[in-house]
Amino acid sequence: MGKEKGLAVVTGASSGIGATYAARLAARGYSLLLVARRPDRLASLKEELSRAHRVDVETVIADLERPSELSDVEARVASGDVTFLVNNAGAGGLGRSAQVTAEQLERVIKLNVTALTRLSHAALTVFQKRNAGVLVNIGSVMAHSPSAGGAAYSASKAYVLNFTRSLQQEYADKPIQIQLVMPGPIRTEFFSSQGMSDSVFPSEAYLTAEQLVDAALVGLEAGEGVTVPSMPDVQTWNALEAARVEFMKATLSGKVASRYHR
Ligand SMILES: NC(=O)c1ccc[n+]([C@@H]2O[C@H](COP(=O)([O-])OP(=O)(O)OC[C@H]3O[C@@H](n4cnc5c(N)ncnc54)[C@H](OP(=O)(O)O)[C@@H]3O)[C@@H](O)[C@H]2O)c1
After folding, report:
1. How many domains is the chain partitioned into structurally?
2. 5 CA to middle of ligand 1, Å?
3. Per-residue confidence of the chain (262 residues) as pLDDT tens digits?
4. What Pfam families does the record tag this protein with (predicted)?
């Protein structure tokens, strides 16, 4: 079952965006390897998707913040049959930095940065050998928005942005697709499970996980490198990119700006 499309790995598959990716990829005929910490959620998703779509579904209970559990998943991804990886597991709306421990801040980095980096690397090694594969990294519009109360989170998503876009440059001449998906607010357990209000943003700003994932898959099929489903006009992104290019050019002046002269 699912032999033609191969194996899709989805991290954070037990709820929200990850569970929706799992359902959509099963419907497209992928076998699945679903990773998260909650065994009950993964077991019922496995039951539902294997029955509905007649694909093989494997579950791995792993806390990706823990090096040894991350290593096990990494070894599984590196073992060769993965054709599609969705790096979706993420967390981190902790509150103000002075009110949380350094360990809590570091956990955000371990999940959103280290796990995503190691799993991307493992998948790309396999894709390079096969000369094919799809890597989807779930970032956030918060990558562009410093946030008091979400310092490590928005910083981690800025990492996901630059890491993924740099990989796109490295693999530009290969038939390997790398997509950065940047959700705005999505109605999932993301806020409530971390003790945040479900109304961090105005209610009309939220999409459902289904809307987000379906749009992201349209973007993927269209060959987009960066997909921002809630952004009405792609010109908004193009303007940001143009400003970034201008900024880089401006920093190569070789002179100290006059405002810093004594
Ligand atoms: N919701 C939003 O508004 C929004 C906006 C922008 C970006 N995003 C991003 O979208 C992604 C998915 O979030 P979501 O909205 O779908 O939230 P969610 O429903 O809370 O899903 C988060 C998933 O990550 C898993 N996870 C959390 N910590 C983990 C760990 N240590 N090890 C392994 N798995 C872990 C959770 O499963 P277990 O608890 O079972 O481990 C769950 O399956 C995240 O990267 C998030 O940053 C969300």
Report:
1. 1
2. 25
3. 556 899 999 999 999 999 999 999 999 999 999 999 999 999 999 999 999 999 999 999 999 999 999 999 999 999 989 999 999 999 997 889 999 999 999 999 999 999 999 999 999 999 999 999 999 999 999 999 999 999 999 999 999 999 999 999 999 999 999 999 999 999 999 988 888 877 788 999 999 999 999 999 999 999 999 999 999 999 999 999 999 999 999 999 999 999 999 9
4. adh_short
30 tagged catalytic: no
CATH number at residue 183: 3.40.50.720
User: Which amino acid appears at position 186 of this protein?
Assistant: I
Q: Which residues pair with 207 in a beta bridge?
A: 186
CB 6 within 8 A of CB 81: yes
Q: Are residues 159 and 206 in contact, defined by beta-carbon separation less than 8 angstroms?
A: no
| DSSP secondary structure letters along 202-225 | -GGGPEEHHHHHHHHHHHHHTT-S
User: What is the atom index within ligand 1 of the atom nearest the CA of 92?
Assistant: 47
Does residue 226 form part of some domain? yes
Let me know: does 220 contact 27? Beta carbons within 8 Å.
no
59 lines ligand 1 (CB under 6 A): no
Catalytic residue among 153, 159, 206, 260: 153
152 lines ligand 1 (CB under 6 A): no
Q: Determine if ligand 1 sits within 6 Å of the CB of residue 190.
A: yes
CA distances from 259 to 99, 105, 174, 249, 262 (A): 37, 36, 45, 18, 8
Tell me, in angstroms, the distance from the centre of ligand 1 to residue 68's CA: 20
| Residue range(s) defining the domain that contains residue 33 | 7-234
Total length of the chain: 262
Amino acid identity, position 104: Q
